Amino acid sequence: MTAIVSQDYVDDRADALAAANLNGLKLALVSLPPGPAPGHADIDLRFFNGLFVASILAEITATPTRAGQIFRIRGGTRVPAGTLPGQVRCTAVVAGSTAEQLSLRIEPVGDYSTYTIELVWDASRIDPFFSGIGFRFRPGCFTNDCAPTLPGRPLAPGPRIDYLAKDYDSFRHTLMVAMAERVPGWRSTSEADLDQVLIDLFAAAGDEISDFQDRVSAEAYLATARQRVSLARHARLMDYHVNEGHQASTWLGVIVSPGQAPFRLDSQQLVCWTGAATPLADESVFFASRDHWLPAARRQRLDPLVNELHLHTWRGAQPALRAGSTSADVTTASATKLEADTLRDLVQTGALPRLLIAEVLNPRTGQQPGRDARKRQLLRLVPGATGMLAARTIHDPLTNTFLVRLWWQEADALRQDYCFTTVCNGTPVDNISVFHGNLLPMHAGEPMAVFFHEPGSALPAETAEVKQRHFQRGTRHGGFDWVLAALPVRPNGFEAPLAYLPTPRGGEIPAKSTLRVEVTVPLGGTDVWDEVESLVHSDDNAELGDQFIVETDERRHTVLRFGNGTNGQLLPEGAVIHAQYQTGTGVEGNIGSDQLIFARGLTGSLSGAIQRVWNPFDVSDGRAPETPDKIRRNAPEAYRSRQLRAVTLADYVRRAEEVDGVSRAVARYAWTGSWRTVRVTIDPAGTTAFDDALRQRVADHLESVRLIGEDLELRPPRFVPLDVRIVVCLAPEFWREDLRFILDQEFGTRYTSDGRRGFFHPDHWTFGQALHRSQLEGRLQQVPGVAHVVSITMKRFNAPTPGLPGMEALEMAFDEVVLLANDPDHLERGLIRFELRGGRV
Questions:
Q1: How far is Cα 598 from Cα 591, in angstroms, rounded to an integer?
Q2: Can you tell which superkingdom this protein's organism belongs to (predicted)?
């Protein structure tokens, strides 16, 4: 846990230890024996007072093996700490112990990282806040970053046919010419004559038939098709999946009414809206929780216990959490042991999977005006009942408070500092920031349900949200059966299109709707059917037969199509289809934060269970369906952007870089004596280790697309560690040590304090990329305080000859990548050293 410590309150807590009959670790001093490779180190542990020091010393003296059990050491990178031989551990007590000091022998000597020694003795006598202390075998900062998609021919001449006749006028003219040829002396005398009326009727019918033929033939080509369903089918033939848009989604914060028992949305539907307190179907934005559609293991528990959690500040000793923190000590409203243990169990079992941290008051004034409403973050908690990061209950003996120490994922490390306690006008103000645990996934759209029954059967009564309809049966193309179920449209004229789930752009992944379809068969029970994009791969068995497809046209009307007994199961007689879904076009759901403030839907014993709701984040992921123009433009060219094969070396590179965890790749041909092999070099993302799991994923992906007759060989990159020495002259008004720290950040492997990548950040370098002297000098000249560059010397780390100051570039081979970690524990990963001249000392 990275916490911001208030030293004044830390000292105040330390002064109160003796009166509470407690003790704790105050200081750790490490000494190494003389010599180039010492085998052990001595550490002097100093306590805040003399309580229990003699008892600890007597226990270790009587049983020397207890030293490593009472004083546990953790940490280390090159030389880890632990309890096994060869690991850094406490082995004995040495002479020099006093009433407030213990001298311990530690062996072997660790690396340059920071270790932590913890006193694990009597929890009622040792304060948890002072039970551990960090130490280093070699003091100082040695790292580069110390900051915290028609038979025959007719017997007689036939009539002349004008095949260019396509509209009403041309059909009418053709019929009148035919009458004049067959009936000598016939003339059109009046439009009311029977013969003229018949000619006009035939011409009109021909015009309609011709138009229908034109429209049907137009749907056979992507460039002329007008219907969205035809466009989607054409695109699918080219492995392009039309994007149907998707509904907006957000997280909803919920405050459960006090005294309400914990509950889940098992059979209830929670609907929220923005606007007036009484929603209008044509004006308000609906957000509904689909939580009860999910498997039981993923249902979100709502509990008043986690309405609001607070940071335990240890009597003000840690009033804030620093950016980058991944753990916190939190308390419930009453901070009792029962509540703390309940909260701990919720985290460990995964019943509480996430927390929301939010700033609710202005840290400068302690009032709500001026607070940063954007200062909110979702934290995904680490579950589990074992391990170093397992949530656990801790007791603060000074305040008799029970708290829970919990952790969240590294990817969710705090992006900003969060203040929890401040002092305004001499008065402490708590709960500047708080944690919220009752969070629900919400999706824009009004919940709907419809039951489809056998054609001709009696329909039950329907309600506003539960509709009753008939599905259609028919045959086509010589007996192929089909079943269609059209989703209802609102009778008041407002559209209620089917909402779709989020789908990535590019046409690679098929769209997935919010439909959940259950089919009830007489004497056969109820089964959940699966939505697929096409029934081509479906059959009539129980495994691949219970499937259906969804087609939405340009008017946003949706039809469900079921199988015919060959491609997908044919619905038996008397079947009932139950479809649950949400409606909404998606874009209308994009709203700002704190707009969903009205809720309804809970009934029965849960009526009134929710006191308040709000959406903590802006909603911006709602998307409109892909337009026909974009479909015509993107579908024919989609295969160029992602080809599902690997023929050339560039294909292999692109296919390899599609795998998650691969930053970059290069490929070369190699002759192995009998056939050609493609050697693919993989640069892992965020690391230099090409592990077996990533290797297997890349191999499986490339095996499915590789050219027959070519072997694959996967290799890690050849990282080239560098040795760079730079001499710079500083401006006279800058301190050397300040500039040294800034230069270490600028040329580090992480980020600078203002969010820019360090010069040697791994994602900044790729295969075959040379290091130029001008790059280094250009970055140096951007640093305020650097007057000029005296010299730059660079070479490969293991080069037998020293680098030359005038060298302009270090060239890299096609499979080599620059590496400069500047880690004192791993000098073989490259180093950079600065000699600073001038400036202030």
A1: 14
A2: Bacteria
Phi, then psi, of 417 in degrees rounded to 5: -75, 140
What CA–CA distance (Å, rounded) separates 777 from 224?
A: 59
Residues 6+ positions from 386 with CB-CB distance below 8 Å: none
For 590, other C-beta atoms within 10 Å of its C-beta total 16
Q: What does the buried/exposed string (b/e) look like for 183-219 if buried means 16 or more CB atoms within 10 Å of the residue's CB? A: eeeeeeeeeeeeebeebeeebeebbeebeeeeeeeeb
What residue ranges do the domains of the chain occupy?
Answer: 3-135, 168-218, 304-437, 642-715, 719-840
Type of residue numbered 768: G
Phi and psi for 342 in degrees, rounded to 5? Answer: -65, -45
Both tokens assigned to 628: 């026909």
Edge-to-edge strands, sheet with 249-256: 598-600, 271-274, 285-288, 439-444, 249-256, 610-614
Q: How many residues does the chain have?
A: 841
Structure tokens at 459: 């329909």
**Other residues' Cβ atoms within 10 Å of the Cβ of residue 426:** 5
CA distances from 796 to 407, 773, 816 (A): 41, 14, 12
Q: Which stretches of 646-746 are DSSP H helices?
A: 649-657, 692-703, 736-746
| 619 Cβ contact list (under 8 Å, min separation 6) | 248, 249, 250, 444, 589, 590, 591, 592
Distance between CA atoms of 30 and 103, rounded to whole angstroms?
A: 10
Task: Identify the H or E element spanning 742.
Answer: helix 736-746
**Tell me, which fold does domain 3-135 have in CATH?**
Immunoglobulin-like (2.60.40)
- Give the pLDDT score at 255: 94
* CB-based contacts of 740, cutoff 8 Å, min separation 6: 834, 836
The predicted pLDDT at position 11 comes to 92
Tokens of 151: 């038979």
Dist. CA 531–CA 73, nearest whole Å? 55
The reported pLDDT for the residue numbered 517 is 93
Segment 14-46, tens digit of pLDDT = 999 999 999 999 999 999 988 888 889 999 999
Tokens of 544: 């691949």
Coil vs helix vs strand at 575:
coil
Query: Is 809 in contact with 773 (CB distance < 8 Å)?
Result: yes
Q: Rounding to the nearest 10 degrees, give the CA dihedral for residues 241, 247, 253, 259.
A: -100
Sign of the dihedral through C-alpha 363, 367, 368, 369: negative
Alpha-carbon gap, residue 361 to 469, rounded angstroms: 53
Check: CB of residue 570 under 8 Å from CB of residue 563.
yes
Rounded Cα–Cα distance for residues 731 and 379 (Å): 44
Model pLDDT, residue 753: 62
For residue 781, give Cα distances in angstroms to 247, 716, 790: 49, 35, 12
Residue tagged 């939405």 (tokens): 552
- Output helix, strand, coil percentages for the chain, rounded to the nearest 5: 20, 30, 50
Place of tokens 């590179």: 653
Are β-strands 480-486 and 446-453 bridged in parallel, bridged antiparallel, or unpaired? unpaired
Max Cα–Cα distance, the chain, nearest Å: 139
**CATH of the structural domain 642-715, one choice from 3.30.300.30, 3.20.20.70, 3.40.50.720, 3.90.1150.10:** 3.30.300.30
This prediction's pTM? 0.68
Query: What parts of the chain have a pLDDT lower than 70?
Result: 1-2, 140-159, 267, 276-286, 290-299, 476-481, 490-495, 686, 753-755
